[in-house]
Design brief:
It is a single chain. With about 550 residues, the chain is of the alpha/beta class. Helix content is about 40%, strand content about 15%. The strands form 4 sheets. An 8-stranded mixed β-sheet has the order 9-8-10-11-12-16-17-18, sandwiched between helices. A 5-stranded parallel β-sheet has the order 4-3-5-6-7, with helices on both faces. A hairpin with a 5-residue loop joins β14 and β15. It is elongated and about 110 Å long.
């Protein structure tokens, strides 16, 4: 069985094993032919009076917090995210007027940013040894786990909210498939308009789109390409997009690259194809995927000042500054992430409090001065759920209807630790985007794309360090205009085509005349003269008729 087939059927094998082991029932799926996903979950909107469980004072709310503390790229920040969740619970419990009579508790599980590990974490949290009733799932590092959680938590058996701090799959915006899902991270697709604005700023009319060949990434990249290509649809700028789907070996999780592997060789071929077409490359994938592409691009000499690279939320990865190859490979990258003022007094205070919990719990440290963006989103994810819970209590609704709780999040707006927060009808975050430039391993803000200000772009071009440190930004057509055709090139090509066509027609007519002479048995010399005269007459010239032809 090929690894591709294995990847496709793995989730079904895992779910099947969970069913057989008694951890999970799949009876929540009801066929609905008119829904896009083929399944739907019936709405369960209830008043407290009709809810079998009436809320009483001193009620404990237990949330399952999932984050990745075991994979190579996210483990250290994962502990910081966990500390942020603990801090949010402390703050909610300390605010006696927020939800009087309620106490928040948490149960932590490592999702490993992995489908199998994540499913085990979810089922173990739901059927936990402490017999705690789980009211919500908060966190989850990667979209493959979020999609599983979205299905499980929307079931009649579970029906609890999932509020992610990190998942970015565009598929998760589909409320018919994931009616109990919301998030504080931006979906990858929501960065597209910011990318278009940057391309317009630098007159990049053609770009490459390198996407990890994971189903949801490929679907999202397809939507990105469609929007970027269609100026009428995006209302800003039309861009020619060349898309390549690359693969990543899970065996390379430690960041090493096997140059003898098929995935590496395939990526080299793809990058060489890109070199022939574009000078701007957008990488769509997890942090490990981005590093794989950038390291390989460096080996192909693509950090020579002629190329630009764009990524999304690459900042959340654990980057080792002592890895010189890595630091050189990522130099000059433009990374897009939700706008956040890390110099703000509140954020500095938040960072200090997070670090205090990290110290108390003896978690591994990131070594950064302030808490990472994803930790702030984890803090806000806990609060988003708490605010919806308060809304349910204030409106006399039961707190066990996950679908209603997520629906009630629509329109939520406040200034959180991760910046301005606005939740749309799909449970997605809407927000401004800050543009970061990687310089010597550090992320420096060089611009902002404002969704709240008519989708305008502020960019400090003079502060950007491009890969290879060129004096000017990479050009869409190359420094020597080698990828595009100039007007002089076009004129020369048209002239050459015209001359070639005229030569061909002339030769054809002369040969046709000789062929007719041979057929009529005329004198070759006279006939050749006649042919030339006829050709000249056909061109508008005058010629004397041959006397022999008049006889």
């Amino acid at each position: 069985m090929s690894w591709v087939c294995f990847t496709v059927i793995l989730p079904f094998l895992i779910l099947g094993s969970a069913v057989l082991s008694g951890h999970l029932t799949l009876g929540f799926l009801t066929r609905a032919g008119d829904s896009e996903s083929g399944y739907k979950v019936e709405s369960k909107l209830k008043k407290t009076g009709s809810n079998p469980e009436v809320i009483t004072p001193n009620h404990t709310i237990t949330i399952a917090v999932l984050t990745d503390i075991s994979s190579t790229l996210y483990s250290t920040t994962g502990y910081e995210n966990l500390a942020a969740a603990r801090l949010a619970i402390e703050d909610i419990n300390a605010n006696k007027s927020f939800l009087p009579g309620y106490h928040f508790d948490m149960l932590f599980k490592d999702d490993g940013c992995d489908m199998e590990v994540g499913l085990k974490a979810l089922t173990n949290a739901y059927d936990n040894d402490e017999n705690k009733k789980i009211n919500a799932v908060i966190g989850i590092s990667c979209s493959v786990v979020c999609e599983l959680a979205g299905y499980l938590c929307a079931s009649d058996q579970w029906n609890i909210p999932v509020v992610s701090h990190s998942c970015s799959s565009d598929d998760l915006s589909k409320t018919d498939k994931y009616p109990t899902f919301a998030r504080l991270s931006l979906s990858v697709f929501k960065y597209t308009n910011a990318i278009i604005a940057i391309c317009k700023k630098f007159e990049w009319t053609k770009v490459g789109l390198m996407v990890n060949n994971i189903d949801w990434y490929v679907k999202t990249a397809g939507k990105m390409k469609e929007l970027m290509t269609d100026q009428e649809k995006n209302g800003v700028y039309g861009i020619q997009v060349f898309l390549e789907k690359f693969y990543y070996d899970d065996e390379d999780e430690d960041g090493s690259i096997d140059e003898n592997s098929d995935t590496y060789k395939l990526l080299v071929e793809q990058l060489n194809r890109m070199k022939q077409k574009v000078r701007v490359i957008i990488i769509v994938g997890y942090a490990r995927d981005i590093i794989f592409v950038l390291k390989t691009a460096k080996k192909q000499g693509m950090n020579n000042g002629h190329f630009a690279f764009l990524t999304q939320e690459f900042i959340q990865a654990d980057l080792k500054k002592d890895d010189k190859e890595l630091i050189q490979s990522i130099q000059g990258v433009l990374d897009l992430e939700p706008l956040l003022n890390k110099s703000d007094h509140n954020y500095i205070s938040f960072s200090e409090r997070v670090r205090k919990i990290v110290d108390e719990k003896q978690y591994p440290k990131t070594g950064k001065d302030v808490a990472n963006l994803i930790a702030a989103q984890m803090y806000d994810a806990v609060w988003l759920y708490a605010k919806s819970l308060k809304r349910a209590v204030d409106q006399n609704y039961g707190i066990d209807d996950g679908e209603w709780l997520v629906e009630s999040m629509t329109g939520s707006k406040w200034d959180g630790m991760s910046g301005e927060i606005r939740i749309d009808e799909a449970g997605d975050r809407l927000g401004n985007v800050q543009i970061m430039n990687i310089q010597s391993g550090d992320f420096k803000q060089v611009g902002t794309w404002w969704m709240s200000k008519n989708k305008s772009l502020d960019l400090s071009v003079e502060n950007i360090a491009w890969p290879g440190a060129p004096e000017e930004h990479p050009a869409a057509c190359g420094r020597q205009y080698e990828l595009c055709e100039t007007y002089s090139d076009l004129a020369a090509r048209i002239t050459m085509i015209t001359l070639a066509a005229w030569t061909f027609i002339s030769v054809f007519i002369i040969k046709l005349c000789y062929y007719n002479k041979a057929s009529a048995n005329h004198d070759p010399e006279d006939y050749a003269s006649s042919c030339m005269e006829r050709c000249l007459i056909g061109c508008g010239c005058e010629a004397k008729q041959n006397p022999k032809q008049m006889l």
